[in-house]
Specification:
28% of the residues lie in helices and 23% in strands. The protein is α+β, with helices and mostly antiparallel strands. Helix 3 (106-123) links the parallel strand 4 (89-101) and strand 5 (126-135). The chain starts with 17 loop residues before the first helix and ends in a 13-residue tail after the last strand.
């Protein structure tokens, strides 16, 4: 790999000339090319696609760009792959748009690109096209990333909120709140005695095994911004059904509980980047749980509640002490720049 004579991103790296060429040849292609990217065409030609496809796009502006358990690069890959997975689609191809701030440390860019490469390889997706822009110092915060993704929809996947009915069960694939609390703690000027990392990861391995349930699998959603609380309220509003969940069954890591108490944050409203909320036919809930637990990323999955005909559009929690409370839809932005 050619060595850089500069250690910072310059405006010229986005000018389309010699510096842009060096950025692409020396930093991006050696890390991300898996067969398509090096062609450097304006559009990637994807001959291997067939059948129904899922297409999604997302932008990532997390602050800080490096946080415990991940960084903006791996987050961009996982976030887009997870949106595809929730449509019952196996992630296959990604585009990568980089908005770089003048003055960004080249070494940090290398770290981000290497993280993107690792996350893509682990998720078995390929970055096939992309774009790089550089904006003047102060016009961005180090780096913003946009990724679009294409995935092949499994023929038997028919996931829709319209298919949710009373008696269906709700599961979550593991402890919630880790990503949001990890990012929040990384912004703090003081340290804590517990270890807390983002859950940023691809959920496709979990979804792939759940698709074995066929029509009994009703709906999937990754509880990102607004956390589990937002997703449950979205389910209630979209289906016009009631949602009943049991507080004692919602998985939470001790570190998340401790951090949320210190920071005054409801962990159910904290973002996740490696979890999935699952709605299945009631009689298949135990089977779904077994499938998830048998899959490494879902080993701490739990059945947390059910869909009811009572109080349509409302999420009710049965508390540990025997009472009930409404889980409200999060209002405003709990934590800006979370993903």
């Amino acid at each position: 790999m050619t060595h850089w004579t500069q250690d910072k991103i310059q405006l010229g790296h986005g000018g389309g000339g010699r510096l842009t060429g060096r950025l692409i040849r020396d930093a991006i292609l050696p890390r991300l090319d898996r067969g398509h990217l090096a062609e450097l065409q304006d559009s990637a030609i994807l001959n291997s696609l067939s059948g129904p496809l899922a297409f999604t796009t997302d932008s990532f502006v997390v602050s800080p760009i490096f946080f415990p358990g991940g960084d903006i690069g791996s987050l961009a890959v996982h976030g887009t792959c997870n949106d595809l997975a929730c449509a019952g689609a196996r992630p296959q191809f990604l585009s990568l748009g980089l908005i770089l701030e003048e003055g960004l440390d080249i070494k940090k860019l290398h770290e981000i690109l290497e993280s993107i490469a690792r996350a893509s390889d682990n998720a078995r997706v390929e970055v096939v096209t992309g774009d790089t822009k550089v904006v003047p110092k102060g016009s961005a915060d180090k780096v913003f990333i946009n990724t679009s993704g294409i995935g092949s929809v499994k023929a038997h996947a028919a996931l829709s909120m319209a298919r949710i009915h009373p008696g269906d069960c709700i599961l979550v694939s593991g402890p919630v709140g880790n990503h949001g609390l990890a990012v929040m703690l990384s912004r703090a000027d003081f340290s804590f005695d517990f270890n807390l990392e983002s859950d940023s990861a691809s959920i496709w391995p979990i979804v792939e095994v759940l698709l074995e349930l066929g029509p009994s699998l009703k709906f999937l959603r990754d509880p990102t911004r607004g956390g589990l609380a937002a997703t449950l309220n979205e389910l209630a509003a979209g289906s016009q059904m009631g949602i009943s969940v049991d507080e004692s069954t919602i998985p939470l890591d001790e570190s998340v509980i401790s951090a949320s108490e210190i920071l005054g944050i409801d962990p159910l409203q904290a973002a996740n980047e490696g979890k999935v909320v699952v709605v299945v036919e009631g009689g298949k809930a135990q089977k779904a749980l077994e499938l998830m637990v048998g899959c490494g990323p879902g080993q701490h999955a739990s059945i947390i509640g059910e869909v009811t005909s009572h109080r349509p559009g409302v999420v009710v929690m049965n508390t540990r002490i025997g009472g009930q409370r409404i889980i409200p839809e999060p209002s405003g932005e709990l934590l800006p720049r979370i993903c």
